[in-house]
Amino acid sequence: MGHVRTGPLPATRPWQQVVRLIAGGAAAYQAATATAAAAEKGLRAAADDPGVVETVWLLVRLPLAARTDQFGLRLRACGVDVPDEPGLFDLLAGVSDAVDAALTNGRGRTDLGELAQTAGAEALAAVGERSNSLFGASPAEVQAAFAAAATVKRFGQFARHFYSRFVFKCLNYFLSKATPDQTAADGRFPTVDAMSRFTDALAVHCHEASAIVEQFAGEWFSKRTHLTAGQIGREETAGFVAHCMTKLTAELRKRTGTDGR
Amino acid sequence: MAAERLILCGGATGRPAAGGGRPVELHIYGPDPNVHFRLEEIRRAMWKPLDPVFRDLLEVAAYVLTADQAVTRAGGGRVDGAEIGAGWRRSLRFVIPVRQPDLWNSAPVRDALVAALSFACEDEFAFEFVAHRREPVFDGLLAYDSTPFDGEVEGVMCFSGGVDSLAGAVEEGVNAGRRVLLVHHRSSPKYAPRHAALVAALGRVVGRTAPLHVSAVVNKRKALGREFTQRSRSFLFTALGATFAGMIGLDRLRFYENGVTSLNLPPSGQVVGARASRTTHPRVLAGFAALLTALRGKRFVIENPFQTKTKTDVVEVLRDAGCAHLLALSTSCGRTWTRTQEHPHCGVCSQCVDRRFAVLAAGQAEHDPAGGYAVDLLTGERPAGEPRVMLAGYVDLADRVSRMGVGEFFRQFGEAARALRHLHPSAAAAGHQVFDLYRRHAAQVGGAITAAIRDHADALRRRHLPPTCLLRLVVDTGAGAEPEDREADAACPPASAQEGNYFLRRGTMWAVRFGKGQECLYPAERGFDLLRVLLAHPGRSFTASALDAECRQDAARGARAVAAEDAAGAGTGTGGDRGAEALDAEAVARLTRRLEEIRTARPQIEASREAGRLELLDELAEEERNIQTRLARDLRPGGRGRVLGDIRNQARNRVSNPLRRALKLIATYDPALAAHLKRPVLALGHQLCYSPVPETAWDFSG
């Protein structure tokens, strides 16, 4: 019990190039570009992935529900099992379980969907972090914070946070197969801490790259909320995911970014 | 997800799905069983005729665990192709004969079974339960024991023989004074004597309330053992535990597993979903409890009393009860196939790393001899691959958590959200419970590392420890003291702080920066060597062969291997025409002569004691390889040379192809430089020339 399964990167040319770059000392931004190029086909599948779409759809519906005086009820109608006045932990558990429930018996479950689901929970946990943390906040404060995320600007930030975590997780999914092998006192990363700083730099790079979706996400949300009277559906959410992932992968491939060594 | 795999059990029939491959046929009964299932150490006085539902449950669990091992997953999951991680998840459809098909096919039972297993294993499950054509004789699977039984068992718990379940047995027997029944799954006879010794020692320690022990042997024919992840193992434990609990009249089963292992948050970005085992995840245990409740028609509870404890806390339970000496007989290693009598622990799997950290953090190393680990946690060398992934991930996770508040923890570990509903009625209380648990774990791991650094300070200072051991990986000892380390360091020096455009060799890479962009690294391939020559001579036109020659001269200065190829190249008919041979007779003779020289020289060099002889041998070996490659490429059978095409085209291709590959790579990483290196700035026609306007200065000096 407690077993953990890991695996190497494939021996194909693009992935071995990623390994060589890391071994050779490439900065996080260049490793991100190489990884995004090697995994582009897989990343673009996000829009067709039920787990990704369900997660994003729930994140889209959450601020809309928070603007009503039936926060809990509206969420339960979307499949998120929460009390009438949910706290932040109720939302984290409720949204995560709702995605699992939508993929009954693992049907449609993929690694991409898993990464989106955990990124979704992490994006929820980040709501309100700029002002006061919502951990320990009252249900009313939590609702107010999520209701505030229903504006163009705030939803853009909310979506950016999700996509930055999602893309980071996707890239780190691959890079973490290669970085430990380069961790040795006489290797690229002389300590675990150096490896960890590389991973942190990757997260920063992904956050910067995901700025590309912020404006678009805010405007899309505002427009679709207006057109659908707050009933944004999964199908249009899939289109939103497709557009964001196209923008993001293109940005990662062309971005030289900040020096995240 | 992979195509559905049909699992036909106990002689059942069914049609496989298209592309699903041959069905897996499993038999517990009959003349030729391939699933060996047996319940051992049963006390006659305890055994009561089993309710059919439990007979079915045990058989279903045995079939599920065997199928889990018979159908492979794709490594850590494939990363190429349209679906990332494809091949990890499987689709398994079982047809199983049972005694009560209506009950098993009922929605509450089937849904609960599928929900628990699909979360535990991350596979898609389908079950079809059919009636036995002839009911098998279950009692033939029982092996009785002569130990007397007085009928006073107060609880049933699962007992793997690892640290956690051992501490659980001590908690029950010593601390609470309760006699419990330990239910064990013996998957391999290899460690049965060690396990028996543990049970006997435990009995002696506990005394009057010594636990009873029963074992289930569930293994399969060797050919069926293809997959070792065994995510459904806790289902078998549950089935065994619930069966015996039912027999004794209890409606409760205990798993003792520390909370960190139970939640098993991913230690590395590549560990997604059930790649971090969920065998005792609170949701899995709740799922199995729901299944048993549906099967029995009354509430059944599965508890994990160690849910709020770390592994170090668990070792402290043993210490505080005066039972730490039992640690030496417990076995935690997940790699059963590598275990030996001398080293019952591999030392590199996640279970071994976790166990050893806990023992050190609890100050109980004297009871868990370091010699029992094939690789020492602190000073053992970690080869690349899983051993280093596991160690680096474990240490990194603890280090990260130690710096986090509760908000940051949940902003980094979204996976934790899945457990909240199953830990505490209040999600907020559960959230804080999880965070406190991990914080304590992080502090204990950090404390163990700090103490180890103190104990090994001298060896660390002198750099006597291997470069991939834990202590070298957590203390930046620098790599500059030893000559060999210095050499390695030169291969990857830190990022250049230089301004302006530069094109520098850095170890095995080229480091290039242009304009206001960031530095990018490129492999030291020929295209970049050629590009460097062009950039170093702005405004100068080269023919393909002149550029080739210039580049080779450059390279020859640094590498003897290239020089060898140059020597071979002298005979390539550079002045020849279309139709000439790639190697003329003179060149063949020269290369053959050189081969002879190398072969004659090698034994003499090997016998000598000169410094640098090993390097010389390496160089000769490489030169020999180059010449052999050349001869193999350019000589036809019979010894005549390969006929050349147009030599001018050849020379052009020799430079333009690698150059174009290099430019393509530059376009991937540095669009600004790629845009700069377009025509007319970089011409790659008959004349190759770099003519930047305005003038662009490059630094090649480093």
Average pLDDT of chain A, rounded to a whole number, is 92
Provide a count of the helices of chain A.
12
Pick out the low-confidence regions of chain A.
257-261
Q: Give the total of domains of chain A.
A: 1
**Roughly what percent helix of chain A?**
55-70%
What's the end-to-end separation of chain A, in Å? 37 Å
Radius of gyration of chain B: 34 Å
SS-based structural class of chain A? mainly alpha
**Order of strands in the sheet with most strands of chain B:** 6-3-9-8-7
Can you give a write-up of this model?
The complex is a heterodimer of chains A (261) and B (702). Chain A is mostly helical. Helices cover 67% and strands 0% of the residues of chain A. Chain A starts with 12 loop residues before the first helix and ends in a 7-residue tail after the last helix. Chain B has helices at residues 52-70, 101-105, 107-121, 163-175, 192-206, 233-248, 259-263, 282-296, 311-320, 350-361, 386-402, 406-412, 427-455, 457-461, 470-474, 483-491, 526-536, 544-558, 560-569, 585-607, 613-634, 647-669, 671-676, and strands at 5-9, 24-26, 35-43, 91-98, 124-131, 142-145, 155-158, 180-186, 212-220, 252-254, 301-303, 502-506, 509-513, 520-523, 541-542, 682-684, 688-690. Chain B has a five-stranded mixed beta sheet with strand order 6-3-9-8-7, sandwiched between helices. In chain B, strands 2-1-4-5 form a four-stranded parallel beta sheet. In chain B, strand 13 and strand 14 form a beta hairpin. Classes of the chains: A mainly alpha (261), B alpha/beta (702). At the A-B interface, helix 1, helix 2, helix 3, helix 6 and helix 7 of A face helix 3, strand 5, helix 10, helix 11 and helix 12 of B.
